[in-house]
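Quick start: what a row looks like.
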Amino acid sequence: EGGASAAPRGTAYRRLALAATLSAGSVLLPPPRASAGMACSLSVVYLLLTWVAHRACCSSVGLEPPLASLLYSTRWRLSLNVGREQGTWMPAAWGASGARLLLPVEVQLLDEPAADVAEPLLGARDATRRLAVTNAPSFVNLDGSMAVRAVGGAWCCTPSEGGEAGALRLCVDFPEGATRNDVSIPPGRVFFTTGMWRGGVLEARLEARAALEAQLADLAAEQRAESESEGSLWRRIVAVRRGVELYDKSVTTRASLSSLSRALPSGGLEETAEGPAGVRVAVGGGLCVKRAKLVGDEYHILGTFKVLGVV
């Protein structure tokens, strides 16, 4: 045990992961006459297994810090876009004119426990950290520039899928709120939610999504070819059977693509910003406010926000 054995053990883990990766590659190489759909399907599996082997190796030797720790002391430039959104439960008159309240807010994510901030939406209380507002937010209306008081809040990264990705949630307190025409930020706490991925994870999943999309296109082409096949009665029977097989594969592939896409930005890397240690953050997110009800709380959609920069 100790420092003397750390290097050999780390080398052993790397060799094990490399062997697993090479083994996966040798098993998953498609046969010479494999269909295009099969080859693409195997390629997707190969990509994912290769990535899993690599990440398992890194985790085994303790190279992967918690996702949240990569964000300590980072500064974020955010742009709030408050206004009526589809599905909101805000009052019917709120934002009915279509007006928007645009508010720039800059925050720093601190490595200071905020256990006194009991907000289930943020995440686990013992994982919640303090947040400081570092600018003086203001917006412009017909009366000129209007200052908005913001007094900080808290943040939490809720990891998922083995810590490779997660949801980043913030809250900022606006004691007096803000109003522009028929749109307002109610006095109180505003919640921000967006997605984030560890360095390299998003790129690998986007490649897997592209491979699944290509597989669907190949399966559709094969289905069309089979449906147009001519020849003997036996040939047409075989074509019908093959068409059913292709349809079943398409249903399975489409389900896999849908599941993968739900956790990815639709526009790919262009809809993300790069943070420290290669972390990728979705540039778009949602805003909401909490409203107490007789039984439990409700969260009403307040608008959206964008991440303009992370340093």
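That is the whole record. The longest helix spans residues 233-261. Residues 204 and 304 are 27 Å apart (CA to CA).
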